[in-house]
């Protein structure tokens, strides 16, 4: 069937190759049998015709083109990606999804190009009414808690059954949208709890996958791999060492960042042990993932248990960040977004091919009003309904600057700090570079933090070369750049103005992506023994925690987590990904080292200054023998000196001032063995030592 495509508000494109007498008659354009005036008709040598109307075509009604004895259906195509469409069918003020009460439920869905939408509610069909903005609505009397629903949508000549993209609960494996009375899903005192109120400069982030956290047999957790596994307190290994939530709380971190917990593909929710996924295959953004529930076949269970997990984490004084994937969907053609408004929600090249900066086959067009609304509504929903405290934006560079600015503005209105961070890479998507929420636009995105890839690569070597080395594992390689990193990559005197605010820098050397730091050291330094690699690892983690900016730790980093060399373990299963709590027990000394580093950061404000001006005034580099790193933090009541020796030889360093310095922390000594000592001018650093001295003033 040949189709006449509406590509602009007033222009049709149609292939006339099958119309023999097109030149002998005039075309007609009809909307529900009413004729539209034609301004001009142009046919090229390939018999492709462009028909320009005298006024824009109204969408949402049956339209046809009649030419000779041929009848062509008119379907919207590129017009849905025009500014005109975005303005005319702007439903930003509509409350989409459903609104439930015990006496009635209202349903709202945006489908401006559909000619008919019906609600299928518990297998009964109800016609819906259309608003001028393209939103369809219907209110049905009765108590519909637990009812299944979907939309029967007729668009572009095709009738399809479509789940609600604003669904808040689903049957197993995203089978059907479900009406839910959300008040019945709150844990006791869920909304009365005093939630953590932690400003960005005080944040220490711990990245965690829900399943990895407790699925190991050694975890001592009953609900292994589930939301509820992270509610259990006082769990421990057979040796009696803490695991799970109690362990995380004891580390001293302030925020738990959860890999995606919104509904995702590739794991059978009824048989989750048969599959594994990190969660970066998003399906329904408002729905918690069912494989983490104890029973995915009961729609309310995943909602209740997700809230229970968040509530339990909050009760430990920890804030919750969720990892959100607003850059693509798992299967563009089968997504509810594409079925409801074909061609609108995604970016396209000029030839009609999907943009693929995400590397997954599609990019969400966040710059369009109703895509932006979806993101803002979802952020608001997880803040209000689930009480989360922050968002990590996957591939944030694929999201436009204005959307991220609006997210930030909304979060500023919340009654507690909401931490926003993301990956600021500039990727090959159909969006102008200056519109991308990438590192290059950091000055327009104050209040939003970026993963500092330069910190990662300078400390341990380029991410794109597994055998490359950096400062800690390359005998001080890149030592001339370390001053930039410890200062938050923002001091103007270093000519390194990436960030205008130190809190924009998320400092890390390991995350869920790529090799763990331990596995990386095995690859980059195969000639060394484990003792040397342990020291290097300690230096890297110490630099993360004691540098200006926001420290970020990957779960298990503090006990040398390994994935057996697997660089991309997103489908690799529990054997590779689970947190090995026996390894935690074996390396308990290093857990104490990381705990001490975090405690030191919390004790002294000088490690977490808020502004560039403060850093300029208080952080001073110390001249030390290359490639030793030394810096001094000058405070009102005390001065702090940090030295890092990335070599396998002892080094003599000079203190910046004489006096009684207390060596309060060193990776070569347990805290109980460190004593205050008088230092005149010089002191010795051991091989691969990170040491901190404090001197009281007055």
Please give a structural write-up.
- Helices cover 20% and strands 25% of the residues.
- The chain contains 15 helices and 35 strands.
- The strands form seven sheets. It has an eight-stranded mixed β-sheet, with no helix packed on it. Strands 18-19-22-23-24-25-26-27 form an eight-stranded parallel beta barrel.
- A hairpin with a 2-residue loop joins strand 11 (116-121) and strand 12.
- Helix 6 runs parallel beside helix 7 (401-412) and helix 11 packs parallel to helix 14.
- Residues 490-497 have low confidence and may be disordered.
Summarize the amount of helix as a percent range: 10-25%
Cα-atom Rg, whole angstroms?
29 Å
- State the total count of DSSP E strands: 35
End-to-end Cα distance, whole Å, is: 88 Å
Chain-averaged pLDDT: 94
The amount of beta strand, in percent, is 15-25%
Number of helices: 15
With strands numbered from the N-terminus, the spatial order across the biggest sheet is 4-3-7-8-1-2-6-5
Shape: elongated
Question: What is shown here, in short?
Answer:
The chain has 698 residues and is an alpha+beta fold. α6 packs parallel to α7 and α11 (530-546) runs parallel beside α14.
Comma- or semicolon-separated keywords:
single chain, 698 residues, eight-stranded parallel β-barrel, 35 strands
Write the layout of secondary structure elements.
Elements: E1 4-8, E2 11-15, E3 28-31, E4 34-36, E5 38-43, E6 48-53, E7 63-67, E8 70-76, H1 83-88, E9 97-100, E10 104-110, E11 116-121, E12 124-127, E13 129-130, E14 135-141, E15 148-155, E16 158-162, E17 177-178, E18 205-208, H2 210-214, H3 244-251, E19 255-258, E20 262-264, E21 282-288, H4 299-315, E22 319-324, H5 336-340, H6 369-384, E23 390-393, H7 401-412, E24 419-422, E25 449-451, H8 453-460, H9 482-486, E26 505-507, H10 517-524, H11 530-546, E27 550-554, H12 574-577, H13 581-586, H14 588-603, H15 612-618, E28 619-621, E29 629-634, E30 638-644, E31 651-654, E32 659-666, E33 676-679, E34 682-685, E35 690-696
Parallel strand pairs: 1-8, 18-19, 18-27, 19-22, 22-23, 23-24, 24-25, 25-26, 26-27
Antiparallel strand pairs: 1-2, 2-6, 3-4, 3-7, 5-6, 7-8, 9-10, 10-14, 11-12, 11-15, 13-14, 15-16, 15-17, 20-21, 28-29, 29-30, 30-35, 31-34, 32-33, 32-35
Helix pairs in contact: 6-7, 10-11, 11-14
């Amino acid at each position: 069937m040949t189709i006449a495509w509406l590509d602009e508000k007033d222009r049709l494109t149609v292939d006339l190759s099958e119309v023999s007498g097109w030149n002998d008659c005039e075309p007609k354009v009809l909307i529900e049998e009413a004729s539209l005036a034609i301004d001009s008709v142009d046919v090229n040598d390939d018999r492709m015709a462009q028909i320009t109307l005298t006024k824009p075509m109204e969408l949402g009604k049956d339209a046809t083109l009649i030419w000779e004895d041929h009848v062509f259906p008119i379907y919207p195509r590129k017009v849905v990606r025009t500014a005109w469409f975005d303005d005319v069918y702007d439903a930003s003020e509509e409350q989409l999804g459903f609104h439930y009460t015990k006496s009635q439920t209202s349903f709202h869905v945006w489908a401006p190009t559909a000619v008919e939408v019906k609600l299928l509610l518990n297998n009964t069909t109800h016609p819906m009414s259309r608003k001028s903005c393209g939103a369809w609505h219907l209110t049905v009397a009765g108590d519909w808690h637990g009812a299944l629903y979907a939309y029967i949508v007729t668009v572009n000549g095709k009738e399809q059954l479509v789940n609600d993209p604003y669904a808040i609960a689903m049957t197993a494996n995203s089978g059907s949208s479900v009406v839910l009375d959300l008040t019945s899903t709150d844990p006791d005192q869920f909304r009365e709890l005093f939630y953590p109120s932690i400003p960005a400069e005080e944040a220490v982030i711990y990245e965690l996958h829900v399943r990895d956290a407790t699925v190991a047999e050694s975890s001592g957790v009953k609900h292994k791999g589930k939301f509820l596994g992270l509610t259990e307190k006082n769990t421990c290994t057979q040796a009696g060492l803490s695991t799970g939530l109690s362990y995380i709380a004891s580390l001293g971190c302030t925020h738990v960042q959860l890999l995606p917990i919104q509904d995702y593909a590739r794991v059978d929710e009824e048989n989750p042990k048969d599959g594994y996924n990190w969660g970066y295959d998003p399906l329904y953004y408002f729905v918690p993932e069912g494989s983490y529930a104890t029973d995915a076949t009961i729609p309310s269970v995943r909602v209740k248990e997700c809230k229970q997990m968040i509530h339990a984490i909050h009760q430990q004084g920890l804030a919750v960040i969720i990892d959100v994937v607003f850059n693509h969907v798992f299967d563009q053609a089968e997504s509810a977004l594409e079925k409801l408004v074909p061609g609108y929600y995604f970016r396209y090249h000029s030839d009609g091919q999907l943009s693929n900066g995400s590397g997954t086959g599609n990019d969400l067009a966040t710059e369009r009003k109703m895509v932006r609304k979806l993101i803002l509504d979802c952020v608001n929903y997880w803040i209000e309904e689930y009480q989360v405290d922050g968002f990590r934006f996957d591939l944030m560079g694929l999201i436009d600057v204005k959307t991220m600015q609006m997210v930030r503005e909304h979060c500023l209105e919340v009654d507690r700090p909401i931490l926003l961070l993301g990956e600021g890479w500039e990727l090959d998507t159909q969006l102008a570079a200056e519109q991308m929420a990438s590192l290059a636009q950091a000055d327009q995105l104050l209040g939003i933090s970026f993963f500092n890839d330069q910190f990662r690569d300078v400390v341990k070597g380029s991410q794109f070369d597994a055998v490359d080395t950096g400062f800690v594992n390359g005998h001080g390689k890149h030592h001339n750049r370390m001053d930039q990193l410890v200062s938050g990559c923002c001091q103007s005197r270093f000519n390194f103005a990436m960030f205008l605010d130190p809190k924009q820098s998320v400092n890390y050397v390991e995350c869920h992506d790529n090799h763990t730091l331990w596995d990386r050291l095995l690859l980059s330094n195969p000639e060394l023994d484990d003792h040397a690699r342990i020291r290097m690892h300690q230096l890297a983690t110490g630099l993360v925690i004691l540098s200006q900016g926001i420290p970020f730790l990957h779960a298990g980093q503090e006990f040398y987590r390994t994935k057996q060399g697997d660089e991309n373990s997103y489908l690799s299963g529990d054997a590779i990904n689970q947190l090995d709590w026996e390894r935690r027990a074996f390396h308990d000394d290093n857990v104490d080292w990381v705990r001490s580093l975090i405690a030191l950061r919390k004790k002294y404000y000088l490690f977490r200054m808020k502004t560039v001006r403060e850093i300029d005034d208080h952080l001073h580099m110390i001249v030390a023998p290359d490639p030793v790193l030394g810096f001094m933090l000058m405070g009102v009541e005390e001065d702090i000196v940090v030295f890092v020796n990335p070599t396998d030889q002892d080094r003599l360093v000079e203190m910046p001032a004489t006096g009684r310095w207390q060596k309060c922390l060193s990776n070569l000594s347990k805290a109980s063995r460190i004593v205050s000592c008088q230092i005149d001018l010089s002191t010795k650093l051991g091989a691969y030592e990170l040491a901190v001295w404090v001197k009281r003033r007055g």
